[in-house]
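User: Assemble these into one structure.

Assistant: Restating your components, then the assembled model:
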Amino acid sequence: MTAGMRLFNFAAPSRFHALTGWLIPWLWVLTAGFAVAGLYMGFLVAPVDATQGNAYRIIFIHVPAAWMSMILYLAMAFWAAIGWAFRARMASMLARAIAPTGAMFTFVALWTGALWGKPSWGAWWVWDARLTSELILLFLYLGYIALVEAIDDPRRADQAGALLAVVGAVNIPVIYFSVRWWNTLHQGASISMTAAPKMASTMLMAMLLMTISFWAYAFAVVFMRVRAIVIERERHTAWVSELVRQRKDD
Amino acid sequence: MRALFLAVLLRDLRLAARRRIDALLPLVFFVVAVSLFPLGVGPEPQTLRHIAPGIVWVCALLATMLSVQHLYAGDQADGSLEQLLLAPHPAVAVATAKSVAHWLVNGWPLIVASPLVGLLFDLSEPALRSLVIGLVLGTPVLSLLGGLGAALTLGLRSGGMLLILIVLPLAMPVLIFGAGAVGAVESGQSAAGHYSLLGALLIATALGAPIATAAALRISTE
């Protein structure tokens, strides 16, 4: 049997359940380890910013969260599309499990952005292009979650959610650029975050560590959620009954 | 395909003609909602003139979202939607015809009423013209996107709120360029760029949304 075949084996819910059950503790260890290292680097080692003082340090949570929010939307749309096109049950379940984590990271990015904006811009919120498009991304996540939760039939929910996620993914560049042009048209020279000062390598390092930590967290939480969805949907199958029996014996 | 398109379009127009009050409700909503803003914001002409394009566009967007909710509901309830999808023609024709019919019934009255509404806010003549041109280009996009939302939320509990939540983020570019066109004219610039972008959005949506709507109809009626 080739390695590719073995990989596909994990598309079977029972195997996926077993594999992720083994992976999740390690992912939590990675999350905690890298978070401690990243926060240590970010809050204690990285130098104080010349203009913003210590307030800038929220960047070590803000930027990785913003990255995750965008990557997770694409991952969600990707798995939803795979699940729809190939009728792959596992992929659809994965897409549904990713959505709440993606929405959470979007919210964290917005919240930390507000906390950062208050000391550096003097306002919790400005209608900057990036903030606005991140807010719209949150709406897209909420729309997806609301739609799949409103449909009782899991098959229809998966397919409708996939369609919406793909339409959203196609629209993201359009939304982003229209918001950018809107912003430049309305505000002229607004606050720009693109002209960031050159970053010290320790800052970059801290941000990288936090990103890895967030990735591990996303994997761990998504896997936990996916396991719950798998058990719920496959509750009538033999392997779930077997699993329940084993648990009871233990 | 063309026969099906025309048949569905004419049928929907005929149905709307027999229920004229229903067809006029979005227009009434539009005018009432627009009139609420001066009461909330205050009667200063300068402020009102400044925010008028945004108000008109947001209200047109909401009126469209409210009127599009029952686009497929009636056909699904009496089973004719399934028959249409079973017909040996692509469902894209049905989706396109329904959205075009929705625009003709609900979009046009908004466009016709918009100059009058604009006068309430003391918009200048060039600004009124750009408002109308923007709505002519933009409201079809709203009808097309609304059709997709209606197909996705077909037969769901609280489908109405859900549709609005799903479609509004997708409709934001239309709002930006539509209201932006009026703003550009007001500040003495050319609105040609905004019209071009609205036109591009219209073409892209006209090509993409019916296909997505057809897929959504198949998912929802499976």
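DSSP finds nine helices and no strands in chain B.
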